[in-house]
Structure formats: structure tokens, C-alpha cells
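Quick one: structure for this chain?
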Amino acid sequence: MEGVFLMTCKELIEYLSGFDPEEGVAALILDLESRQAYKPKAYQLMSGAEFPVLLFELGEASPLDEMVEQVEEGGELDAGTDEA
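Got it. Here's what it folds into:
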């Protein structure tokens, strides 16, 4: 699976250690080429693999530039699941 790993478990654990363990975790999947952002509709944590695998089902696309503008204007970023 060479080339699939974007970070190490150590990096992720160090990042998450700065947050309350009961806090929710958000995810945004970005397509920078088309300037689109996707909120996940659902996620799964894959078990049985030799390494951690997070699976995300993509929701509707939203214009990335509009999301950035909303945050820059003091709005909150809604990066929760895109439940239909």
C-alpha cells in the first residue's frame, strides 16, 4: 500500500491529544482542482486491517471558496456529516 499513507498514527494521536476526548471530530474532503468541498454523509472505522483505515462516504459538493469566505466573515464552518 505504498503511497496511500498521508500521516502516521503518531502524528494523528499528537494532533488529537490537543482536544477534549469527548469533542466531536469533523471531516472535509477537498478537491482543490475543482474548488469543491464535500462533507461526509457517513463514516466507518475499518477493523481487521494491518493499519488504521478511515472510510468516508461523500455527501453533496459545496463551493470551497464560499466556505472560506463564510469563515473569514466570522461564520462557523459546519463540517459535520451531510445528513440528507
